[in-house]
Write a structure and sequence with these properties.
The complex is a heterodimer. By secondary structure, chain A is an alpha+beta fold. Helices cover 47% and strands 13% of the residues of chain A. Chain A is built from 20 helices and 13 strands. Chain A has helices at 2-26, 44-58, 69-81, 97-100, 108-112, 117-120, 127-134, 153-158, 179-182, 185-195, 205-215, 238-250, 267-282, 295-303, 360-370, 373-379, 389-395, 401-416, 426-441, 447-464, and strands at residues 32-38, 61-67, 89-93, 104-105, 135-136, 162-163, 166-172, 174-178, 309-312, 326-330, 334-336, 339-341, 346-354. By secondary structure, chain B is mostly helical. In chain B, helix 12 packs antiparallel against helix 13 (265-292). Chain B is globular and about 75 Å long. Chain B starts with a helix and ends with a helix. The chains are: A alpha+beta, B mainly alpha. At the A-B interface, helix 3, helix 14 and helix 19 of A face loops of B.
């Protein structure tokens, strides 16, 4: 009896081990791949629309879990730091990369193997977007990749950099405006009389401000202003950091110098912040609640028709009852030495393979497929902020003129966009700047005080993180 | 023989505790000790394999960190003002309701509603109610008083009062219900005796009712104080995210940010430990103070 039992146990154990071995061999082609993705910020609708095709093509089921921005960041960080193998592909926002780059599987070796090269077509990606999103020195993530006209893998690896993902979405600051107001002959005549020039799309900050002042008015004659010139996103939120950075870059300033010392408090930084604050406090061309606005509120306010121009990272729509007409143009620049300098904030999303995924090969194939030219063309239907030149070419033949206009503006803006600094302490630095800008806007601190204090704090943050060793 | 059985069953009862203790040890004690250990390091989960012991540096840093200081002061203001107003309001309403009113159970249910709403939903709802440009509150204020565009959540002076207002809206019902339950459990004889002796309503409340409510008052103040100190997170997070500037940053938000936004786990653990000690200190002092008080 005892021997039979022993035998039975042995057989069962062997069967168990055998089935485990079989299943690990079978991992070559997994049954399912899981993606951790952003709900709105990286356009999940477009991705969800094609994943069924992938299952039909390959037999691999693709599950996409989407989260709104704040929860996604926590989810991504906790999944990776817990070394969880649940997700194979992870959607990564650029400012997170320096902190999590060690948890991402570099794609360079897969690319160099020449796998899927006909779908990959690296040189079709917008070079700037590709380099900013997914080319990093894993050991020194603060380093900027070498300049190049087209994405060149050898040049990237020769300089000691790795490709850590493939860009899937590129967000850049653009302006949505009320075309119906701009085309109104009454306003056109009035504007010409007041400013001596036509009411056209502004190229510079000064022109933009003129138009904003012009449209800030009481339209129904009840003695209260009901139309404002523009929006800003001044809430203590990542949005105000991006706003300030856009103004700073446009004024020719920077957050850090080559030695990673903060220089946002220099003359250019002061000019930029003063200009930003003047729109809210001096000229009052923004709605009164601007200090509580982030990207969501701006979309609502523009939608209600209460502002003539509004800045955001996607195309905004007017509510049907406004009876207006939308249009888009680039974030204005500033004339520096006879040339218009532009610096709209841009930040993009990449698809990266988790280092802890058990299906890295399959995950790589899926990432290539999802970012391929043929799929990006399909994404245009969902107004996805595509990352390939061919997709922007394809966008030129979209039927809807408004969507065409938006893609043209976005494509041009991406060429001049300015990304975020590549630092592991980004969230801290961003928070310090958010507080400084808020403190200045509500009048708690003077211009110099707010910026100097922020610079001091940032220097301490950077020092503690070991940037000056 | 009886002794033997007794001692055996005595042992058995400890075995029944094992599952509960195991859960307690792994869910509470181990993380607590882990966080204490981590608070002496510069550990951050986003950096692989590079952390070291840094002694008391994190603890010292807490005292020089101006953001922690501001958050602490905000927290004190928040706790003192909201708990006081909630208590006073709760007491007044409970006294008003402590009589035979028709439909009292309906009124009581209505008062329960704010407490039953999820805090994040409360935050989002009030964010729109208090919105400067579209908010319902501003609309009514404009209709009645003609004042326009009050910047509830976006100005330094109003943001803190606004989050206190929302906290009061949400938690006064708790005070009302607890005090009402206390009032209704009191026997009527001493009150009637006082009335016969010619005591005024105020005297009855002050010298007869209030002293007998002492225990319940003490419990609810304690619960709300600890709650306010440690758990006021979701509403503030959704309403203002600690802004504008640092004007509504509470310590719970600050610690969360340090741990899960900046990923400075070591430092966040140190701040949490100091905060825990502070909360323990405040509550024990509070308990002994209240017990000594003659009402």
């Amino acid at each position: 009896m005892k021997t039979t039992k022993k035998l039975l146990v042995c057989i069962l154990t062997f069967a168990l081990l055998f089935s485990i071995a079989i299943s690990s061999f079978a991992a070559e082609k997994p049954e399912e791949l899981r993606i951790l993705y952003a709900t709105v910020e990286a356009g999940s609708e477009a991705i969800l629309s094609v994943v069924d095709d992938y299952e039909a093509e390959t037999g691999i089921k693709v599950t996409v879990d989407t989260f709104p921005y704040n929860s996604l960041q926590e989810k991504v960080f906790s999944e990776l730091t817990q070394k969880s193998d649940y997700y194979d592909l992870i959607c990564v926002d650029t400012p997170w990369v320096p902190q999590i780059v060690q948890h991402l599987e570099p794609m360079t070796k897969y690319i160099k193997k020449g796998k899927n090269s006909e779908l990959l077509q690296l040189d079709d990606f917008i070079t700037k977007v590709f380099l900013d999103t997914d080319v990093f020195d894993v050991d020194a993530p603060y380093k900027q990749p070498p300049a190049m006209d087209k994405v060149d893998v050898d040049k990237i690896t020769d300089a000691g950099f790795d490709i850590i993902g493939l860009p899937i979405q590129s967000n850049v600051l653009t302006v949505s405006y009320r075309k119906d107001l701009f085309e109104n002959p009454k306003y056109q005549a009035e504007f010409k009389e007041k400013f001596g020039r036509e009411l056209t799309i502004p190229e510079t900050m000064e022109e933009y401000l003129d138009i904003a002042k012009f449209f800030t008015r009481d339209t129904d004659g009840d003695g209260e202003i009901d139309l404002y010139g523009t929006t800003l996103m001044a809430k203590r939120h990542e949005s105000v950091m991006c706003d300030f950075k856009s103004f700073l870059s446009t004024f020719g300033g920077r957050l850090f110098d080559e030695n990673m010392k903060p220089v946002l408090n220099n003359e250019k930084g002061q000019q930029a912040l003063k200009y930003y604050g003047d729109w809210i406090n001096k000229y009052k061309v923004t709605p009164p609640g601007t200090l509580t606005y982030s990207w969501d509120e701006v979309a609502t306010v523009y939608g209600s028709g209460k502002v003539a121009m509004a800045m955001n990272y996607h195309d905004m729509k007017l509510e049907p009852n406004v009876n207006g007409k939308e249009g888009y143009f680039m974030f204005p620049g500033k004339e520096i030495n006879g040339k218009i300098n532009r610096g709209p904030h841009f930040g993009s999303w990449g698809l990266s393979i988790s280092k802890y995924s058990k299906n890295k090969d399959a995950a790589y194939d899926l990432a290539v497929w999802l970012t391929s030219a043929k799929n990006q063309e399909k994404y245009l239907k969902y107004k996805q902020h595509v990352t390939r030149q061919s997709a922007y070419e394809a966008a030129k033949s979209i039927d809807d003129p408004l969507t065409r206009e938006y893609y043209a503006v976005m494509g041009e803006s991406l060429k001049v966009g300015v990304g975020r600094p590549r630092i592991t302490t980004y969230n801290r630095v961003s928070e310090t700047i958010q507080i400084a800008v808020n403190d200045y806007l509500v009048g708690r601190k003077s211009l110099e005080e707010a910026l100097d204090e922020a610079a001091n704090k940032i220097e301490k943050i950077m020092e503690r993180a070991g940037y000056y060793n | 023989m009886e002794m033997k059985i007794g001692s055996k069953s005595n042992k058995i009862k400890y075995y029944f505790l094992v599952p509960a203790l195991t859960v307690l040890i792994f869910m509470t004690i181990v993380p607590l000790i882990f966080s204490l250990g981590v608070s002496f390091t510069n550990y951050s989960p986003t950096r692989i394999g590079s952390w070291s012991f840094i002694g008391f540096e994190n603890f010292i840093r807490t005292f020089t960190d101006s953001e922690i200081g501001t958050s602490f002061i905000n927290n004190v203001i928040f706790v003192v003002v909201s708990v006081t107003i909630e208590f006073v309001l709760g007491m007044v309403i409970a006294l008003l309701l402590n009589r035979k009113i028709r439909g009292i159970s309906f009124i009581r249910t209505m008062f329960l509603l704010p407490m039953m709403v999820t805090p994040v939903a409360v935050g989002l709802m009030w964010r729109w109610l208090l919105n400067t440009d579209y908010g319902l509150l501003n609309y009514f204020i404009e209709q009645v008083f003609g004042i326009t565009s009050i910047n509830w959540l976006g100005s330094y002076s109003l943001a803190m009062p606004s989050i206190i207002l929302v906290d009061i809206w949400k938690w006064t019902p708790f005070m009302i219900l607890s005090l009402l339950a206390g009032l209704q459990s009191l026997s009527q004889e001493p009150i009637e005796a006082a009335r016969i002796d010619g005591a005024s309503n105020w005297q009855i409340f002050r010298y007869v009712t209030l002293p007998r409510l002492k225990n319940i008052i003490f419990v609810i103040l304690l619960i709300r104080t600890i709650d306010c100190l440690t758990r006021s997170f979701d509403v503030v997070w959704t309403l203002t995210n600690g802004g504008p500037g640092l004007s509504t940053e509470l310590l719970s938000l600050r610690i969360y940010r340090l741990a899960f936004k900046f990923w400075e786990t070591g430092y966040a653990s140190a701040v949490s430990w100091l905060y825990l000690l502070l909360v323990i200190f405040i509550t024990t002092r509070f308990i002994s103070y209240l017990y000594k008080q003659e009402f």
